[in-house]
Q: What sequence folds into this?
């Protein structure tokens, strides 16, 4: 019947992401050093206080060193006016690329990006759009992430682990653009493959209000809906407020959590059984892929339509690979490093 | 024991050069009620505040309490151990807090006991209130009390403190009362006196400050008169005659005579009774003011006086809308101003001007420059070409400062850093400069030195000569004599007498003041 | 009750209404949601959960009323909460120090912050608002450096158990920490000379001096106490989350002030008082819990906070005849 | 200059030092980073950009000093900035209304917020801190609902051009908006009777009243002006980014207050003044920009803000002999 088929489908999807990630070349080999020689990239994170983004930039700097690409971070406190200053800074100081990482929406900087383009500075985004989303016309190149696919994966996991009967509370932040495709994926997958599953409640909490509002509103939602057996905080840094909410309402064990990002402290939660599953990405891999993609764009080569960093599911079974306590890049294997070096002609 | 309760030697206190107290010796015997007299600003309250440890005195003062030598300022513990209790002139109550808290402040804020037994505190407070026959709920906020009740609360507080400090069966302590009586009705005063006699009979001593000679003569054993921060005399009250005391208080100030002569010379001839009536006050009454009718003629300078607390200064507050009157009308020519609804802004627009007595508090912004303060009332004059013209303003302010001999004549200086007297000159100059129709002055020359006083007087006479009506509330009788055409004498909120024409002399005024209270 | 006097404006009745209006409002909110959602809202568990998870907020609000009573603002309270949490996290998790030491150092940090505040406010005589605005961002900077801006989970299990797992009457101990602090402040404010000294300092510095109270000592003490209580709030916060969150400090500050001012309209109207503040925190929390159980979007809760504050203070202002209040 | 008096405590020299200390500090910061990063920091463009992108911050700080001068706090300023931006976004983008109408309504919203504040502060006599704390979260709630908590881009192109693209001396017009407002406030504070009245209301309400100033009118006016200027800040903010961001309101508030207090230590020490505030904003911005260019870790910048504020105010306090200041 439909329910059984759905569970089977979910199982197939999950299996795809249980295997150790394998490196798939994003394009033809090219002389990355020649292309990168003397070029400069300014990486503007959503906020310098975000360890995930900071991690990516740190690794971009290292990768850049190998290729002769200068990478600099634009320190900021998450204020759009500071991002604007960053773009202007890049223009003035003849950077070649402005790299807007995850969360800096080009549309909040259109005047500056237009100016940059006029000055011959290419603005690129990575880890921001979903392939299904049209990228901002001012952006020279962008390396999207399958947020939609992630939504589907989260749904599949819930379907599989709940035997096709997931009663879900979702915690989301609508103001962050990736949320929309991710939620779409989640809903579609549930609709398509789980007749009995329901999203009981979607709690929308602004990023600035996570600390003050997630815990209390989730507690209320859980108490108001005793049937709930899944909580999906779509970004895993939310879970530091989700886990205590479940604990304090005495639903530990009855309510499971699945989330996305692979932030170390959340992987620790997985190890302790507070979180059932966390979809992770390797920061170092993202850094490699970003620089690979950008250099291709810079040198007029075809740009991959996707950042191509595989999602890897961490659950109780494999989370120890991520380290104890967990680290950002562990558990994803490392053949991608060799892979990229070969592509870039640094190794044969 | 024969040791005096209090023995002060060479007590001096200066405020930035101003000597409020200058080598004062004061002895209060055991079981003695000692009077302390002196005109306004003579240093009485300052002496009290030094005793209470609020002011640190200038070095060199000696203090012996019950034979024991102590360093000033005394700590609170020292004071309480020796049974010192005060009724400060400003009473020292916090309006937002309850009667209970204010009455028991010493107990409930004092260290020592680990926690407050409110039942006991409330009982104690209630008991003291009952003993004084006060129908006051201890849980009322002080802000909801009438001034009389507030004074009584402060008094009861002090008596309770004394009564609680026994050595064996003997009461032991010194009760200091800084002008407690002005607000009190006669029978309250009597009750106060009975209590004073009682505590003294039980062994305590009292230092009693008052302007009311009859009170002093009635209650005190000995008395000391302060004048300009020095001791003018100290005597057995019974021996000293009333006139002698008045003379000690008034002193033989050099300017009295000369002031009068020159005053006479400069003063515009007494305004003819025929001069047209510019303002008419009808049926003015306020919380502490009995109904008053008053006709003011163009160019007239009318004085208001009385002893502290007689409420004469309130006439000004009500006329200006600074404190709302309960009823009354001010008829200014055709214009009819309803006083209960009057606010200062409208008063100013109607051509009134008011110089409050509390000078730093209400009449000038100490944090701002002399220039700012002196030009505030009418800035439109200097608003030309779409801007305030500072050069003109500065020049004008300088002229005013020089004209009124403000020292130093630096108009960019903070008002607060001027001397008291100089600050006063600035604030008076402010109003004189705009030439109001009715000028309300409260202690216009307080703290101003003798020479400058004359100048201010002349300035006031000048505006009067220009047709301005001046109402001058002051307890400085010499000033009233020199300045006014006639003077209204108040007591307990009612106008008791009018002194004018030839009979207007300092001595006469003094007599009337004390007669009025007695009445 | 025969406690410290309750200063009242007008009639005894109006006074009583004023004193317990907030409690009434709270009960009304509970009744309202209780009728609407009997099964979920009106359950012991719901309140148990709310009591425990709001404990840090309550502690911070209580911390703030200490200097407020003496007439000083402590805007660094929020940052101090985070500071304490992060010190626990870094020392206990990253450096594997015993929890006891971490706790001691967290509290010590509170003493330090408070002392710095007191020095600049009382000795240098800079307005408290300015000083604590500055120290707030200094502390924030330190926190970002010390925690590397990342959340630290895995705090000592026994510590977390004591705060959140262990329960009495089905309520985690966290709540009782807040209750104890409220009791302590209530006792100090109401029944000790120190409390009265603070009150006199706050309501009339001059008179306080005239009565021989060491105004500077009292103010300094209050500022230190406030910071220490804020660190306690941070410790409980870390316990409730089981992790140290380096960001949220500031978000707690304004609601805490709101609760403090709201609390000052009840129980002892016109004065910052422990139980009023305590009730205010849980009144606001109840409203928000009920609203979110209805699945009402979160923006309503922000509005609810603001509206509740203004309405409550306005009512009590009219109850006392719109006299200029000397709060804030 | 022979303008309004600069009241001084002690010696003229100390006074002069005090007046221009902040300017000196600014120059020092510029010199420092200039030597370190001649190529990038010490360029006209760098300052041009900083001037433009900090214009909203400057406008908000200027808005705050209006009620501060009259002795009232406006904590709703930050929320009002966001309110204006979001009104522009929703009306002009989502509802396709002409930008002119959107601008008019944004400013009208400012008048409304200011009037509400004034009503509760001046008429009901609730402390400004409490009222604006409440309205701040009310406005925040409204903004989240109105904007559906999401960033809105695609504002009218000509509007954006006017704010950020069009330049004079290489600086976007945004900056000149701030300059104009600073000029206006400077003119009002220094050269109009109104400004003097505000000053007296702030320095001594009773004095002001007894000199015939309608204190309530002045305070109400100041509160409305403050909210309107805050909306102007929001409009410029939206223009600078070409989009409306519903969240950054609060981030602006505390730095703006810091700038206001910092500004009150210079030019006209002891008074909130337009140019002092203006300079303070850009002094802090220069420091932060320099630090970011250096790639100095973020926590340093946070600390820098706080340290700069405390150090500056402390110095000026010692310059004036630690007298109780009547700011804040
Ligand atoms: N804090 C102060 N700063 C400056 N001068 C002061 C201060 N307190 C009192 N003075 C001045 O000291 C002098 C004595 O004041 P004091 O209050 O002792 O007079 P007094 O005898 O109590 O007068 P009154 O009978 O009116 O109460 C006055 O010139 C007064 O202006
Ligand atoms: N806080 C202050 N800062 C700067 N200068 C001050 C300050 N206080 C007083 N001065 C100056 O000290 C001098 C003496 O002031 P003081 O108050 O002692 O005068 P005074 O003797 O009381 O005169 P008056 O009898 O008019 O009150 C004056 O020139 C005054 O400007
Ligand atoms: Mg006196
Ligand atoms: Mg003097």
A:
């Amino acid at each position: 019947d439909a329910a059984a088929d759905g569970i089977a489908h979910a199982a197939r999807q999950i299996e795809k992401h249980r295997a150790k990630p394998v490196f798939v070349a994003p394009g033809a080999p090219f002389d990355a050093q020649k292309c990168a020689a003397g070029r400069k990239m300014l990486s503007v994170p959503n906020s310098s206080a975000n360890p995930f983004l900071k991690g990516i930039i740190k690794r971009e700097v290292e990768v850049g060193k190998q290729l002769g690409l200068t990478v600099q971070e634009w320190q900021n406190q998450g204020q759009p006016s500071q991002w604007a200053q960053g773009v202007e800074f890049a223009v003035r100081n003849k950077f070649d690329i402005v790299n807007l990482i995850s969360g800096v929406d080009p549309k909040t900087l259109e005047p500056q990006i237009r100016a940059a383009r006029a000055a011959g500075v290419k603005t690129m985004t990575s880890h921001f759009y979903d392939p299904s989303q049209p990228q901002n016309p001012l952006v020279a190149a962008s390396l999207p992430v399958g947020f939609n696919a992630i939504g589907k994966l989260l749904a599949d996991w819930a379907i599989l682990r709940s035997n096709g009967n997931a009663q879900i509370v979702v915690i989301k932040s609508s103001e962050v653009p990736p949320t929309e495709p991710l939620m779409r994926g989640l809903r579609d997958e549930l609709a398509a493959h789980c007749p009995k599953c329901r999203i009981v409640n979607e709690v929308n909490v602004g990023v600035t209000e996570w600390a003050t509002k997630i815990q209390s509103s989730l507690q209320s939602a859980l108490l108001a809906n005793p049937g709930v057996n899944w909580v999906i905080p779509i970004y895993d840094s939310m879970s530091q407020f989700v886990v205590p909410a479940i604990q304090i309402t005495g639903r530990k064990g009855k309510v499971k959590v699945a989330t996305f990002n692979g932030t170390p402290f959340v992987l620790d939660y997985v190890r302790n059984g507070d979180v059932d599953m966390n979809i992770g990405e390797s920061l170092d891999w993202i850094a490699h892929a970003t620089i690979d993609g950008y250099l291709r764009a810079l040198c007029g080569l075809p740009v991959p339509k996707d950042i191509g960093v595989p999602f890897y599911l961490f659950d109780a079974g494999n989370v120890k690979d991520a380290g104890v306590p967990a680290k950002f890049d562990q558990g994803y294997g490392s053949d991608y490093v060799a892979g990229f070096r070969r592509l870039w002609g640094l190794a044969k | 024991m024969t040791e005096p309760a209090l023995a002060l030697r060479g007590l001096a206190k200066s405020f930035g050069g101003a000597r409020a107290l200058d080598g004062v010796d004061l002895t209060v015997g055991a079981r003695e009620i000692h009077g302390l007299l002196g005109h306004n600003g003579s240093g009485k309250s300052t002496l009290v505040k030094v005793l209470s440890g609020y002011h640190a005195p200038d070095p060199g003062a000696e203090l012996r309490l019950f034979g024991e030598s102590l360093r000033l300022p005394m700590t609170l513990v020292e004071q309480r151990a020796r049974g010192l209790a005060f009724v400060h002139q400003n009473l020292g109550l916090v309006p937002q807090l309850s009667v209970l808290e204010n009455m028991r402040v010493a107990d409930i804020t004092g260290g020592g006991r680990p926690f407050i037994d409110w039942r006991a505190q409330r009982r104690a407070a209630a008991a003291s209130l009952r003993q004084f026959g006060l129908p006051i709920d201890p849980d009322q906020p002080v802000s909801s009390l009438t001034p009389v009740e507030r004074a009584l609360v402060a008094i009861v507080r002090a008596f309770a403190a004394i009564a609680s400090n026994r050595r064996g069966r003997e009461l032991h302590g010194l009760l200091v009362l800084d002008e407690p009586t002005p607000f009190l009705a006669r029978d309250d005063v009597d009750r106060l006196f009975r209590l004073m006699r009682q505590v003294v009979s039980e062994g305590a001593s009292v230092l009693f400050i008052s302007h009311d000679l009859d009170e002093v003569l009635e209650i005190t054993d000995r008395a000391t008169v302060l004048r300009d921060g020095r001791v003018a005399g100290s005597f057995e009250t019974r021996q000293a005659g009333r006139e002698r005391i008045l003379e000690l208080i008034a002193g033989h100030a050099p300017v009295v005579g000369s002031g009068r002569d020159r005053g006479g010379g400069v003063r515009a001839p007494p305004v003819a009774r025929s001069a047209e009536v510019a303002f008419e006050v009808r049926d003015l009454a306020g919380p502490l003011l009995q109904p008053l009718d008053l006709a003011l003629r163009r160019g007239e300078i009318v004085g208001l006086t009385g002893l502290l607390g007689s409420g004469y200064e309130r006439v000004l507050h009500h006329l200006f809308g600074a404190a709302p009157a309960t009823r009354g009308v001010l008829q200014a020519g055709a214009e009819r101003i309803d006083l209960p609804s009057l606010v200062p802004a409208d008063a100013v627009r109607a051509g009134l001007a008011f110089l409050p007595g509390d000078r730093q508090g209400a009449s000038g912004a100490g944090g701002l420059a002399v220039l700012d303060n002196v030009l505030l009332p009418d800035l439109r004059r200097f608003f030309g070409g779409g801007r305030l013209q500072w050069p003109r303003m500065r020049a004008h302010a300088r002229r005013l400062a020089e004209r009124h001999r403000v020292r130093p004549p630096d108009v960019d200086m903070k008002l607060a850093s001027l001397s008291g007297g100089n600050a006063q000159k600035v604030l008076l100059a402010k109003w004189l400069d705009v030439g109001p129709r009715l000028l309300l002055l409260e202690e216009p020359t307080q703290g101003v030195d003798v020479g400058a006083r004359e100048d201010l007087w002349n300035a006031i006479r000048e505006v009067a000569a220009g047709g301005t009506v001046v109402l001058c509330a002051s307890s400085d009788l010499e000033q009233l004599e020199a300045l006014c055409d006639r003077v209204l004498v108040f007591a307990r909120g009612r106008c008791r007498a009018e002194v004018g024409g030839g009979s207007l002399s300092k001595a006469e005024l003094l007599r009337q003041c004390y007669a009025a209270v007695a009445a | 009750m025969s406690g410290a006097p309750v200063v009242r404006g007008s009639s005894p009745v109006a006074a009583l209404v004023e004193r317990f209006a907030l409690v009434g409002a709270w009960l009304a909110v509970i009744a309202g949601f209780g009728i609407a959602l009997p099964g979920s809202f009106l359950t012991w568990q719901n309140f148990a959960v709310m009591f425990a998870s709001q404990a840090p907020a309550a502690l911070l609000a209580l911390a703030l009323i200490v200097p407020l009573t003496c007439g000083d603002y402590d805007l660094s309270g929020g940052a101090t909460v985070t500071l304490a949490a992060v010190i626990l996290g870094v020392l206990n998790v990253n450096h594997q120090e015993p929890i006891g030491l971490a706790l001691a150092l967290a509290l010590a940090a509170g003493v330090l912050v408070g002392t710095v505040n007191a020095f600049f406010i009382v000795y240098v005589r800079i307005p408290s608002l300015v000083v604590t605005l500055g120290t707030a961002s200094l502390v924030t900077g330190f926190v970002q450096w010390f925690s590397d801006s990342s959340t630290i989970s895995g705090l000592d299990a026994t510590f977390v158990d004591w705060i959140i797992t262990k329960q009495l009457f089905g309520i985690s101990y966290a709540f009782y920490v807040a209750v104890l602090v409220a009791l302590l402040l209530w006792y100090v404010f109401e029944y000790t000379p120190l409390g009265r000294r603070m009150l006199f300092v706050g309501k009339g510095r001059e008179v306080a001096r005239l009565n021989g109270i060491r105004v500077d000592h009292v103010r300094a003490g209050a500022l230190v106490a406030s910071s220490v209580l804020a660190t306690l709030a941070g410790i409980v916060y870390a316990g409730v989350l089981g992790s140290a969150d380096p960001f949220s400090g500031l978000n707690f500050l304004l609601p805490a002030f709101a609760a403090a001012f709201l609390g000052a309209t009840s129980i002892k109207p016109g004065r910052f008082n422990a139980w009023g503040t305590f009730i205010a925190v849980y009144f606001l929390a109840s409203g928000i819990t009920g609203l979110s159980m209805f699945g009402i979007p979160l923006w309503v809760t922000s509005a609810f906070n603001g509206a509740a504050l203004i309405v409550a203070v306005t009512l009590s202002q009219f109850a006392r005849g719109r006299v200029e209040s000397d709060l804030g």
Q: What stands out?
A: The longest strand of chain D covers residues 152-153. Chain D has one domain: 12-319. Chain D touches chain C through 53 residues (CB under 8 Å). The pocket of adenosine-5'-triphosphate (ligand 1) is lined by residues B 15, 18, 20, 38, 40-46, 89, 420, 447 (CB under 6 Å).
